[in-house]
Specification:
alpha/beta, Immunoglobulin-like, TIM Barrel, 2 domains, eight-stranded mixed sheet, eight-stranded parallel barrel
């Protein structure tokens, strides 16, 4: 799975930037890469006819070739079902996903028994009856061998009280569909009254011990408005990353997260690249291996202050779609390299120690660094800059180090920051930024780089 020639053996000429010198040699670059894909999941697939409410009722059927072609063109490799319950619709969507190279996660909470209805039955499951199993199999047998079928969306945001049921249903699922994905999305660390556990760490630990999942997924939306209607960032967003990342590392599983792509309630409408990139790159600074949209298609209702997602109510691409396409394209440019590395820890850097970033409150294992911080993490002699940043630290099986550097300024402020990293032993670095690879020779180990609003850069010292 490893050792693809993902970094070509070429010399890239990099002209002088602050802290770097013109690159003059043509030594070979290391072979770093993985065949594993970063997950880009389009949650809320195009709906079938007549699922809308209010002014959207009697909507036409949007399960069309064009709509699924757009999912693929945007860059998504997974589609998460929401509206399609009927077998005919599921099979139609599977055919379209196969045509465009998309993996499909079915919901299939149709009539009668389903995986989700067993979990939510209200009682602890001791045994799943043969009748219930037969009812579920009668439906799923009709599409389980389809090439595009990847698994099921089993449950969304369960309380810990349901973990025993989720584990019991998983036993049946793994016997019946041993090579398919059993997907459960967890609550964020903002729902103390819903967790069913004393702390969020306890909530995660119970889930991981009882269910033994193949991945960890949760949702959290940081782009909000305050009570005066001004852009704000929700408290605890970075601390939630840390808790999920630490547990995923401990159990050696990937973690994914839902990002905000649709305005609703007091959440902002992500309208441009900055709003999306800020969420995705900051999650990658904590080692996320995939992102999921909330939402791809705009929810077919007019309540809850809903604005629009990547596709609006009427099947039109929004600016958010085009911004997501740009973002996915630039991540795919270094996807195989990033996926070859394993997250170790993250530095949370505050440029001015008199004004600590409130997003860095409540952290336990992350490294807090201020001003001109010395030796903040392995391989880095110092970090300084004129804006707050995250610096994720990664290693791969061959001993290389990688660093995901991100701009922590609220994307609403449209701020560009400058960060200086001094490496302990490196003479040059490879930097992946804005969809391209640049190679710099270092002057006394120093790299000075600018990051635009929402931007992230993946850096490998050599």
């Amino acid at each position: 799975m490893r050792k693809l020639l993902s970094i070509l053996l070429v010399a890239v000429i990099a002209f002088s930037v602050s802290g770097c010198t013109k690159y003059k040699t043509s030594s070979e670059l290391p072979q770093i890469g993985s065949e594993d894909e970063f997950r880009f999941a389009a949650y809320m697939t195009p709906p079938q006819a007549n699922v809308g409410s209010d002014i959207l009722k009697n909507n036409p059927n949007y399960i069309t070739d064009e709509q699924y072609k757009w999912i693929a063109e945007c860059g998504f490799n997974y589609a998460y079902a929401v509206y399609e319950f009927e077998i005919e619709d599921i099979i139609t969507v599977l055919d379209l996903c196969e045509k465009y190279g998309i993996k499909y996660m079915a919901r299939d909470n149709g009539k009668g028994a389903s995986f989700g209805s067993l979990i939510a039955s209200g009682t602890n499951i001791e045994n799943i009856t043969d009748e219930q199993k037969s009812e579920i199999k009668a439906r799923v047998d009709l599409y389980k061998d389809h090439p595009a079928f990847a698994g099921h969306i089993i449950y969304d945001e369960p309380s810990a009280a349901l973990f025993d049921n989720i584990a019991k249903v998983k036993e049946f699922y793994e016997e019946y569909l041993p090579d398919k994905e059993y997907f459960v999305n967890l609550l964020p660390d903002t729902s103390a009254g819903q967790l069913g556990a004393e702390t969020y760490n306890d909530y995660l630990e119970q889930f991981l011990q009882k269910v033994q999942p193949e991945m960890l997924s949760y949702d959290r939306y940081p782009l909000t408005y305050d009570t005066s209607g001004n852009p704000d960032l929700g408290i605890g967003y970075i601390a939630n990353f840390e808790k999920a990342a630490v547990k995923a590392k401990e159990y050696n599983i990937p973690f994914y997260m839902f990002i905000l792509t649709m305005g609703h309630w007091n959440y902002r409408t992500p309208k441009n690249y900055d709003d999306l990139a800020w969420q995705v790159y900051n999650s990658m600074a904590y080692g996320a291996k995939g992102i999921e949209t909330f939402t791809y298609w705009t929810t077919m209702g007019t309540g809850e202050n809903i604005t629009y997602g990547l596709i609006d109510w009427y099947g039109n691409r929004t600016q958010t779609w085009y911004s997501m396409q740009q973002l996915i394209s630039e991540i795919k440019a270094f996807e195989s390299v990033y996926m070859d590395f394993d997250w170790q820890n993250t530095v949370c850097y505050t440029a001015d120690s008199d004004y600590q970033n409130y997003q860095f409150e409540g952290l336990n294992s992350s490294v807090l660094a201020y001003d001109n911080a010395e030796n903040p993490i392995d391989g880095i002699s110092s970090i300084k800059g004129d804006g707050d940043a995250l610096l994720g630290y990664f290693t791969n099986a061959d001993g290389y180090k990688g660093y995901m550097l991100t701009n922590m300024a609220d994307p609403a402020d449209d701020e560009t920051i400058t960060i200086e990293l001094k490496f302990n032993d490196a003479k040059e670095v490879i930097v992946y930024k804005k969809g391209r690879m640049v190679r710099y020779a270092l002057n006394k180990g120093v790299l000075t780089t600018k990051l635009g609003s929402g931007e992230g850069q993946f850096i490998i010292p050599l």
